[in-house]
Automatic annotation (TrEMBL):
GO biological process: DNA integration; DNA recombination
InterPro entries, A to Z: DNA_brk_join_enz, Integrase-like_cat_sf, Integrase_catalytic
Protein name stated in the entry: Tyr recombinase domain-containing protein
Record keywords, A-Z: DNA recombination
PROSITE patterns referenced in this protein's UniProt entry, alphabetically: TYR_RECOMBINASE
SUPFAM superfamilies in the record: DNA breaking-rejoining enzymes
Segments forming domain Tyr recombinase: 94-293
An MF annotation (GO) of this entry: DNA binding
Length: 293
């Protein structure tokens, strides 16, 4: 495959080869896989992979994890199957091997609703210290469940180069850390000074590798995160409030509160929306709109 080939060119050639080598059995499937592979190739290019076939198994799960936030289950399954076929073609998977099914979070995100500050505080008070701090951090910085496992000092890991407005974190103060988000994007996040102090008190002597939903993370702090934190949060919410919007509801809280805050500081809605999108680690501002409902 030519170096730096366009995503469309890569996808078309791959789809033809999948059919030619009988990895797939119909031209209809080849056309469907081509559409999926174009998206996959564009993502690969965005994160610096030279050619979609250069993706590793870990890259595949990063991609599916990234897509799970705004792709429905049917689309996500199609893209997983396209990657799976590609890996069988290039020998990264054996003929009968499969990729683990990743569940779409789109429906969960669309159904989640924001918690008020009082509700978020009440929930955290009904968790153990380890999970209590995680909930406070997730609320204050708008973090995803797995991002809690990836917090690092900026001296240890730099954020990826992405567009950033001067209005990012306007009106707020604190300490900058980095987290690894959807699609492997490393971004800066701002933690209030008091929470940063508590976090540093739980710093591990040596980082450890933890596995959450088929992905390995290097964890530097003894706090909850990932699926275990999500379960703790939902149980505490149900005990405290008699309902649960899930841990993702805290990202809705962050988005809505920041939008109000930034508009009160004189920013237009569009600039505020783009600012919040950057702070939340969204690849597109349109995704942030879902969090404002």
């Amino acid at each position: 495959m030519p170096k730096f080939a366009k995503p469309e060119t890569q996808a078309e050639k791959l789809a033809k080869n999948l059919y030619k080598h009988k990895i797939i059995k119909s031209l209809g499937t080849a056309r469907s896989y081509k559409t999926a592979l174009i998206k996959i190739a564009r993502w690969s290019k965005d994160i610096g992979i030279n050619g979609v076939q250069g993706m590793s198994l870990q890259d595949a799960y990063k991609y599916l994890d990234y897509r799970s936030e705004f792709a429905g289950q049917k689309t996500l399954d199609m893209e997983r199957q396209a990657i799976q076929a590609m890996f069988k073609l290039n020998g990264k998977l054996r003929p009968k091997e499969t990729l683990t099914v990743i569940k779409s979070e789109k429906e969960i995100i669309e159904k989640s609703r924001a918690y008020t500050p009082a509700q978020a505080h009440a929930i955290s008070e009904h968790q153990t210290r380890k999970y209590n701090l995680s909930t406070q951090i997730a609320y204050a910085a708008g973090l995803r469940a797995h991002e809690l496992l990836t917090i690092a000092r900026v001296s240890e890991r730099k954020a990826d180069s992405r567009p950033a407005l001067d209005s990012k974190w306007l009106g707020r103060e604190g300490c900058i850390y980095t987290v690894k988000g959807k699609g492997g994007l490393i971004r800066d996040v701002l933690l209030p000074n008091a929470l940063a102090t508590q976090l540093e008190q739980r710093r591990l002597a040596q980082p450890i590798t933890v596995r959450d939903r088929e992905i390995n993370y290097l964890q530097r702090y003894d706090i909850g995160g990932g699926h275990k934190w999500s379960c703790s949060f939902s149980k505490a919410s149900s005990r405290t409030l008699f309902f649960s919007n899930g841990g993702h509801g805290l990202r809705h809280s962050y988005a809505q509160e920041r939008m109000d805050e930034l508009k009160s500081l004189g920013l237009s809605r569009q600039v505020a929306l783009e600012t919040v999108s950057q702070e939340l680690g969204h690849f597109r501002a349109e995704i942030t709109e879902v969090y404002l409902k």
